[in-house]
Design goal:
Helix content: 40-55%
Shape: globular
Strand order of the largest sheet: 1-2
Largest sheet: 2 strands, antiparallel
Number of helices: 6
Number of domains: 1
Number of strands: 2
Order of helices and strands: EEHHHHHH
CATH superfamily: Winged helix-like DNA-binding domain superfamily/Winged helix DNA-binding domain
Radius of gyration: 13 Å
Length: 105
């Protein structure tokens, strides 16, 4: 069974805004992958990671690039970069891989 990473309470993926590519908007994760996310919730709280940064981090874990993350989250790639910079600062990491490893070890 799969659920959406989108903020809605339903399991259906959120549709992209008009003019956006639909390809990245329907990426889904398995319930088993979601378990590891909740196990690391305390770690994220320890670093004071915001809700938006948690979403970005979860999409990073799937190996998505800024443009794909933006499409899934409904934000611009520039905003994704801002969230990434904040994640690096808060976690003391320097790149995507370090950030994911720090938060999901």
């Amino acid at each position: 069974m799969y659920i959406s990473l989108q903020p809605e309470k339903t399991a259906a993926p959120r549709l992209p805004k008009k003019g956006r590519d639909i390809q990245g908007a329907e990426r889904l994760i398995k319930f088993s992958e979601l378990d590891s996310f909740y196990k690391n919730k305390n770690r994220m709280d320890e670093f004071n990671i915001s809700k938006a940064e948690k979403r970005i981090l979860n999409l990073l874990k799937q190996g998505l690039q800024d443009k794909e993350i933006g499409e899934c989250a409904g934000i611009s790639p520039g905003t994704v970069s801002t969230h990434l910079r904040n994640l690096y600062r808060k976690t003391g990491t320097q790149n995507r891989l370090e950030s994911v490893n720090t938060m999901f070890q």
